[in-house]
Amino acid sequence: MANSMYFVQECPTCGRRLQIRVEYLGRSVVCQHCRGKLIAQDPESYRYPGCDEAQNLLRRAEELLRDASRHVLAHNRLPNPR
């Protein structure tokens, strides 16, 4: 298929710009870099399904990491019982 047409779409998992064949529009595809799954969609009008959920998940992960860091710092400040 030397004459295939491609469009560029960003992987929602790793952010890489992927060249996807036009014939895969609407299909589930896998990023060859991170193995993340995505739906090939028109780059002019797409919005990733689940994008809001992914953002919420990332936000929650950041909160948990921040809380864990605070816990470790607080624990390190406690006097060392002998």
Overview of this protein structure:
By secondary structure, the chain is of the alpha+beta class. The chain folds into 2 domains: 1-47, no CATH class; 50-82. Helices cover 33% and strands 20% of the residues. The protein has 1 helix and 4 strands. The protein has one helix at residues 51-77; strands at residues 6-10, 17-21, 28-30, 37-39. The strands form 2 sheets. A two-stranded antiparallel sheet has the order 1-2. A two-stranded antiparallel sheet has the order 3-4. The N and C termini lie far apart (73 Å).
Biggest beta sheet attributes: 2 strands, antiparallel
Number of strand segments: 4
Percentage of β-strand residues: 15-25%
Report the average pLDDT across residues.
78
Radius of gyration: 21 Å
Structural class label:
alpha+beta
Strand order of the largest sheet: 1-2
Could you tell me how far the N terminus lies from the C terminus, measured between alpha carbons in angstroms? Answer: 73 Å
> Low-confidence parts lasting 5 or more residues at pLDDT below 50?
none
Helix content: 25-40%
**How does the overall form come out from the CA principal axes?**
rod-shaped
How many separate helices? 1
How many domains? The number is: 2
